[in-house]
Design a protein that fits this description.
The chain is mainly alpha-helical. The protein has 7 helices and 4 strands, in the order βαβαββααααα. The longest helix is centred in the middle third of the chain and has 30 residues.
């Protein structure tokens, strides 16, 4: 399989970690969502977003949630990061939604604050994004365990996404955090002991 997308993308990184946890072999191909890579990316995904996961038969899967669903459905080692059904699945999806929201708004802040020329900044929009990031991370903070993981035998989908979102903010706009999320900081430290997380820390 081939995974298109850089580790700086919280969503491509999620797929990369998911694959490691399921003992899947995947070739990584870094591709950016802007600049000279855009035409190549649009040929892979007409939406122009990463990740894209190309299967061994050439099928190309897009959108993180759809790729994760396929990965769990076909897990070669039986590891699922989301429960198959029931209340456990619903609760895990809600944790995943909190972390995904934080990542989405953090990416939007990077585009508006870190990449857009300063004369085109929109302070009110940035303030709103910061509030949404802190709100989403605050929701994550309420369910992050003091020790261990949310999954029965290791990180589940929410844990993975929360670590990625928190670390993305820490790397791109650390001032947003203001030391307000100690449980997430501890979760990130625990993730530093697990392959997949350590292998995909992005360079900013």
């Amino acid at each position: 399989m081939i995974l298109y997308g850089r580790d700086l993308s919280p969503f491509a990184r999620r797929i990369a970690i998911w694959c490691v946890m399921q003992d899947r072999q995947v070739e990584r191909r870094a591709i950016q969502t802007a600049g000279p890579d855009l035409e190549r990316l649009m040929a892979l995904n007409p939406v122009g977003r990463v990740p894209v996961l190309e299967l061994e038969d050439g099928t190309q899967l897009i959108e993180t949630y759809a790729i994760c669903d396929w990965l769990d459905e076909t897990s070669p080692n039986g590891v699922r990061l989301l429960p198959a059904n029931g209340v456990a699945r619903r609760e895990a999806l809600q944790r995943l939604a909190h972390a995904t929201g934080a990542a989405e708004k953090a990416v939007a802040l990077v585009y508006d604050r870190n990449r857009r020329p300063e004369q085109f900044h929109w302070p009110e929009w940035q303030q709103r994004l910061v509030g949404q990031i802190r709100g989403s991370l605050g929701a994550c903070e309420t369910w992050v365990p003091d020790h261990g993981w949310s999954g029965p035998s290791g990180p589940d989908a929410g844990d993975v996404a929360a670590v990625i979102a928190y670390q993305f903010v820490e790397l791109t706009n650390p001032w947003v955090l203001q030391g307000a999320f100690p449980r997430l900081a501890s979760l990130l430290a625990r993730a530093g002991e697990i392959p997949g997380f350590t292998d995909t820390v992005p360079e900013v």
